[in-house]
């Protein structure tokens, strides 16, 4: 299956270190060699980049790893194609505009019978993946409620995620540029960084970095990934069926169906 990477920050954070390690999983340390994509929400708007080549072999992926891309939210995806050919329209992240906001979406997993999810026609897939069909379906559900209500939105995504998880594996990240939502049906983890910052080591390429030289004392940001990216002890596993929301680098205080039944 695919690999996911996400970040939410309270001020622009350089993404190069995380991306340089993560891209090793795109054809070097893993089988995820069927293209990649990454989306950035920056103060100057939303930007995304896609390539059908394995990240480890891509000049674009190399460029994205340079230390000059700072973002408030980042969503990266390394593809291992299960549904749909190796084509640029099948690479994540998928994006659509709704209520004046750019919604960005990545998914890891494989779903059987996803074609039974009815689409309204407002949002339609451009490619042939299960993930894009599901993205359009999720937007149809979100269009029926107030997406300014983070708790209600997270609760809706939890209920939809539970339904989709019955079709197979469904791990996803979704953002409207303000909040980064995630749902886990099998395996996801997260880590929040805040001062005092220290030196950390990438588990993928062995690179060391002193975060204290790159972040001021007010910086707070959270990383999400399929598997831990660094040697830090703060990585936490998400629980199957858990939905979470992050805003300005912090976990939002939301009530989801799972939380109510715990």
Write a structural description.
The protein is globular. The model has no long low-confidence stretch (mean pLDDT 92). The protein is built from five helices and 15 strands. The chain starts with a strand and ends with a helix. The longest helix is centred in the middle third of the chain and has 16 residues, at 150-165. The chain is of the alpha+beta class. The protein is 18% helix and 35% strand. The strands form three sheets. The chain has a seven-stranded antiparallel beta sheet.
Could you name the key traits of this structure?
seven-stranded antiparallel β-sheet, six-stranded antiparallel β-sheet
H-E order: EHEEHEEEHHEEEEEEEEEH
Q: What would you call the shape?
A: globular
Number of helices: 5
Q: Which structural class best describes the helix and strand composition?
A: alpha+beta
Which radius of gyration do the C-alpha atoms yield?
17 Å
Largest sheet: 7 strands, antiparallel
Termini separation: 30 Å
Q: What order do the strands of the largest sheet run in, or round the barrel if closed? A: 3-2-4-1-12-9-13
Strand content: 35-45%
Binned, the helix content reads 10-25%
- What's the multimeric state? single chain
Tally of strands: 15
Spans where pLDDT lies below 50 across 5 or more residues: none
For the residues shown, what is the average pLDDT? 92
């Amino acid at each position: 299956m695919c690999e996911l990477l996400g970040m939410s920050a309270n001020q622009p954070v350089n993404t190069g270190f995380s991306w340089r390690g993560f891209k090793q999983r795109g054809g070097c340390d893993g089988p995820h060699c069927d293209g990649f994509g990454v989306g950035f929400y920056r103060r100057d708007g939303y930007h995304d980049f896609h390539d059908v080549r394995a990240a480890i072999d891509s000049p674009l992926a190399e460029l994205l790893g340079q230390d000059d891309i700072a973002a408030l939210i980042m969503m990266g995806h390394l593809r291992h194609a299960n549904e749909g050919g190796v084509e640029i329209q099948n690479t994540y992240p998928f994006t659509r505009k709704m209520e004046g906001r750019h919604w960005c979406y990545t998914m890891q997993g494989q779903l059987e019978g996803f074609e039974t999810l009815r689409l309204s026609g407002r949002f339609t897939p451009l490619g042939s993946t299960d993930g894009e069909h599901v993205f359009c379906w999720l937007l149809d559900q979100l269009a029926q409620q107030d997406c300014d209500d983070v708790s209600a939105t997270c609760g809706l995504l939890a209920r939809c995620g539970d339904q989709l998880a019955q079709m197979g594996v469904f791990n996803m990240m979704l953002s409207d540029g303000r909040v980064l939502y995630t749902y886990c049906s099998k395996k996801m983890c997260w880590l929040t960084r805040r001062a005092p910052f220290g030196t950390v080591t990438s588990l993928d390429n062995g690179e060391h970095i002193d975060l204290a030289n790159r972040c001021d004392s007010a910086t707070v940001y959270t990383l999400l990934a399929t598997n831990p990216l660094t040697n830090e002890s703060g990585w936490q596993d998400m629980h199957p069926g858990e939905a979470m929301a992050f805003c300005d680098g912090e976990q939002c205080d939301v009530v989801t169906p799972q939380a109510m039944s715990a």
